[in-house]
Design brief:
The longest helix is centred in the C-terminal third of the chain and has 27 residues, at 104-130. Helix content is 61%, strand content 0%. The protein contains six helices and no strands. It has 160 residues and is mostly helical.
C-alpha cells in the first residue's frame, strides 16, 4: 500500500512539473521553442525564488515565459533577451548570477573560505606533529625496584 501511494505521489509530482509550460505557450518553430526553454531554465521565478520559470506554475512565471517567447519571436538574441530581463527585474532574476564587480564576492567567497579552512587544518596538524612529546625515559634500576615492591604489596595473596 505504501509503495502504491509513493508511486502515485511521484506520478503527480512529475505530471505537475510537466504542466508548467502550457500548450498555448509553445512556439510553432521547434528551434525557437528550444531556445525559449533553455532561457527559461536560467531564469528565476520571482514568486518561487529557487525554481526556474520553466518549472514554476506561478502566474508571474507564465508571464515571464511569454515575455521570453515574445522577445525571441521579435528576433532578439539570447543575450538580448537576458539583458532585457535583467534590466527590468535586476540580477536576481538570473539563477546563476553573472561574474562582475557586484558578484565577485558571491563567486569567490566559498572557495576562499574552503582554502582558508584547509590551510588552518594543515597548519594545526603541523603544529601538533611538532609538539608530540617524546617517549618517556626508561625506569632506572631503583625505580623498577620500588615499582615491583608496590605491585607486590597491592597484589592479593595467592591461594594454595
Amino acid at each position: 500500500m505504501k509503495r502504491a501511494l509513493f508511486a502515485l505521489m511521484m506520478l503527480m509530482t512529475m505530471a505537475t512539473a510537466a504542466q508548467a509550460v502550457l500548450p498555448d505557450e509553445i512556439m510553432s518553430d521547434a528551434a525557437k521553442e528550444a531556445r525559449a526553454r533553455d532561457l527559461s531554465r536560467e531564469l528565476r521565478c520571482m514568486v518561487c525564488q529557487n525554481q526556474s520559470i520553466d518549472d514554476s506554475e506561478a502566474p508571474l512565471a507564465r508571464d515571464l515565459r511569454l515575455l521570453v517567447r515574445e522577445r525571441i519571436a521579435a528576433g532578439d538574441s539570447d543575450a538580448q533577451v537576458m539583458d532585457f530581463l535583467v534590466a527590468r527585474y535586476g540580477e536576481f532574476v538570473l539563477l546563476k548570477p553573472r561574474l562582475n564587480s557586484h558578484t565577485w564576492l558571491l563567486w569567490f567567497l566559498t572557495p576562499l573560505a574552503l582554502a582558508a579552512g584547509a590551510t588552518a587544518l594543515w597548519a594545526n596538524s603541523r603544529r601538533r606533529a611538532k609538539s608530540v612529546p617524546e617517549a618517556p625515559a626508561a625506569l632506572s634500576a631503583e625505580e623498577e625496584e620500588k615499582l615491583a615492591a608496590l605491585m607486590s604489596a597491592d597484589a592479593p595473596p595467592e591461594k594454595s
